[in-house]
Each structure stands twice: as C-alpha cells, then as structure tokens.
C-alpha cells in the first residue's frame, strides 16, 4: 500500500474546484468522471432525503470502488455522528478507497477527535475534511485547526449558507457579515497547514456573480471554491489558476535572485519593487502549482 501523502504533496495539489453532487444520483456521478473539476464530493448529507440515506451511502461506496475519477480527489460527505446515519456512514467510508471523508458542523477539537477515531481502520491516505459552518466554531478556529498536527484533518470547506442561517444574517453578493469569519478561518488554516476552500455560490445561473464571489475568495487567500453546478467549474478554475502576469512575475523573481550579484542577498529590486526571500518562496510555489495544473489538463 502506498505511503501516506506528505503535507508538502497536499499543499501543492491543485484544489481549485470541488463539485458537490448527490450520491443518490448515478447520472451525476457518471458525468463527474468527465468534468474538469479538481475534486468531487459525493454528498450523503444535505442533498439526500432521509428515506434515501442508506441507498445513497451504498451508491457512494460503489462509485468509489468502480473508480474512473482520474486525477480528481473524491470525498464522501457523511452525516454527522450526532445523527442516526452518521456512525454507519463513517464505518462505510472508512472501509472504502475514498480520498477523504467530509464531516459537517464541527464545533470543537473534540469533534475532530471523534471523527478521527471513527476512521481508525481506514487506509492510511484517507484524509479528514471538515465543514466550517457554525457559530460555535468561531471562537474555536485555532484549536480545531491545531488538530491537524495529530489527526487526519487536512482541509476545511466553508459552509456560509448554514452559518447565515444560524446567525440570521443576510447572505448578499458582497458577503459583508461573513468577511471577518472568512479571514479568521483562512488564517487559522494557514497557521496549521490546512488547505481551505471557499463556500458555494447559490446563484449558479449568474456566472458573472459567481466569478466575482470566486475572486473575493481568492483575495481572502482560499485555495479554491466548492461548487453546486458544473457550469461553475470553468470560471472557478480560471480564477484560482495562476495567470500569465502571475507567472511572469514569478519567473522574473526567480531569475533575479539567481543572478551572481544577488547571491546571498535577502532583499533585491525586481521590476522596480523591493522583493524579499519570502517572495522567492512564493514565486517557486506559484510555478510548481502551475506545473501541476498543466499536468492534469
């Protein structure tokens, strides 16, 4: 069995677009195998009615066993352990070859510990992803993120719809009430080496609005965005991929620090701007991410 992926491998993996689809919909699953998204989330929670939960669970595990998803990471979103379906979901997922399990409504480090323990029999590469979507986690973000050091936790996905419901806040295109929460979540994730995706945009017919929200997510530092419709994949991938100007900047920084006269310097001038070693690190990462994106296209 392959060794678990390292933190460095996961940090450089393109995670621009994560498409949710109901595990109870075989046509959607078949189509997902052909779509250019980086990640697929087979949903057992919000998208599945109570009477269809067990059938959806079996369908998700069967889809994983069938394979055919190519480069895409495939996760199964389980029902919470505090529901009547959660324990059975976790047991089934732990016995599958899914890349990850996505768990809902995490509030505290103890929640992560419970989910981690439920995956004790899973294959070593299975990751634990968590939805960040409750008022209860706001004060616990650093403590929950720190669980990545001792558990399978490796990625967060924002759930702004659920947060808006709990806060009784209005979800507008600018997402003003949630901006502090978005920034706090990104900071906590970065401090602990966790990848983090922005939440869904509900207006799947308005791609201009979607792109504006995706660019806001990029501004905040998210790695990518979760999606509810295939039409959102292409604009999402475009927003979260390095552009020509980004790549030109990265190349110029690397070339400048490679000049003999700049050897051993911690700060130099590049294209009229003061540039430090931290920018060199950013430039190298940008080019490596671009190389990996090119490799899957």
From TrEMBL:
The keyword Metal-binding applies. PANTHER family: CITRATE LYASE SUBUNIT BETA, LYASE BETA SUBUNIT, PUTATIVE (AFU_ORTHOLOGUE AFUA_4G13030)-RELATED. This is CoA ester lyase. The keyword Ribosomal protein does not apply. One of its GO terms (biological process) is oxaloacetate metabolic process. InterPro entries: Aldolase/citrate-lyase_domain (IPR005000), Citrate_lyase_beta/mcl1/mcl2 (IPR011206), Pyrv/PenolPyrv_kinase-like_dom (IPR015813), Pyrv_kinase-like_dom_sf (IPR040442). Substrate binds at residues 77, 133. Residues 16-230 form the HpcH/HpaI aldolase/citrate lyase domain. Mg(2+) binds at residues 133, 162. Belongs to the HpcH/HpaI aldolase family. It comes from the Bacteria. Keywords: Lyase, Magnesium, Metal-binding. One of its GO terms (molecular function) is magnesium ion binding. Its cofactor is Mg(2+).
